[in-house]
Amino acid sequence: MVATKASTTDIERLEEKAQELLTDQGCPGISVAVVDGTETVFADGFGKRRLDPEAPATPDTLYGIGSSTKPVTATAVMTLVDDGEVSLDDAVSSYVPYFEGAPGEPITVRELLSHTSGMPSDDVATITLMDAILGDEYDDSLDGWEEFREHVDGSLDRRRLDGDRCLYYNSGYVVLSRLVEAVSDAPFAEYVETNLLEPLGMDRSTFDVNVLTGDANDAMTPYYERDGEMHGVGLPDDPLFEGPGGLQAPVTDLATFVAAWNERDLPVDDDLASAMVEPVEPFRTLLDGTEVGYGYGWMTRPFGDDVLVGHGGGTGVSAGYLGFLEDRGLGIALGCNADPDTSPERLAIELLAATTGTDPERVLPKRAVERKERRVTGEYAAYGGLQEATVSRTDEFLEIEHSSPMGVESMRLMPASLDPNDYTFRVAKRSAKRTTVEFFVEDDGVELLVHRNLYERVGDLDDG
């Protein structure tokens, strides 16, 4: 573990939260680094980067970070913009032979960077990943650039022209990698390493998946769970994967990248860097109504009185996140060698909240909902014992199953509000009538009103 600049209280709080969050994620190994300004103030590994033979996760473990690669790819594109070699509003087809037959106005470089071209997902990333993970078990693949181009051409008539929107489009970043090659006359990986990674001092980061093999590299083994066991696999050795998600990096290198963004010590002009973190369109809306925006390779979301700029990514067998608070200058990077139970973005936000002393419910609206849901789960019984109910949680819903001599009914519930004292939930069902379920939470117990029936909680779920 590395610790330097931050106050002792901050570091202690961060260490405690990291131990709590990262040691029980259903993921063999996780590494994390935290940056304050330009200094790495915390870096540690949790669990195992490899299970057999066992090897520990360290701050220098190489992880496949998936779509957390996109800020790196976008920054590489912007170096060409800075040099006057590329214009953001130029048609992509003026550089590379893609989207020439797309309906509507020509698709631009800016639109691919911000996922605003109107092109919906065509599952290129999924196809590439499944081919690498499942091998002979997977009979669909894209064999090289020509098949990729045919795949994209075949989807052009699906372009949405009915308004500005952000549709996450991995193929756009594949095409951007081709654009970098066409303009620079160098392979994409070589251009990024020479013009971005090496100048920033990201010496171990690479697009070469072969580094994931060999004991000397301190590299992860990617894992996925099947039949209750972890299975080690590989990642795509495919140039189609490089631009949208192909970087292997340790969190120490990602911390260096975040520090460069904190200080705007980048190989692009400050105005261009600022434009990259300015949202072009909303990417998604949080439970409290606030919006997550997408700029050029970066997402933005409110973080109390600050703004969190970041990007997460996952490959199905590894995951990553990197981001920074714009005003505070506090940054974070994570790497995982499987899909953790909690998304890397949320893990990062929880750790940043602990480090800054921020109430997690201020920056994670879902946390307030989860707290309410946990408060009301359990076994319930109505007066006389003829009717019973079970209230349980899934990843997405609060669920009620209530039974009577007439049968069993199940319902999915969504919170009516984020008010911590409002335990009213709406029933998700196909009906013009809005149905609500109410919980009455007191210090001495919980009651549940479903339709006209009042239930009293009589035990926890583990009590059977």
Low-confidence stretches: 1-5
What amount of the residues lies in strands?
25-35%
Largest sheet: 10 strands, antiparallel
Distance between the termini: 43 Å
Shape: globular
Q: Specify the number of helices.
A: 13
The CATH homologous superfamily name of the largest domain equals: DD-peptidase/beta-lactamase superfamily
Structurally, the number of domains stands at: 2
- The CATH architecture category of the largest domain equals 3-Layer(aba) Sandwich
Question: Would you tell me which CATH topology of the largest domain applies?
Answer: Beta-lactamase
Q: What does the radius of gyration come to?
A: 24 Å
CATH class of the largest domain: Alpha Beta
Mean pLDDT: 91
Q: Report the strand count.
A: 22
Helix-strand makeup class: alpha+beta
Helix content: 25-40%
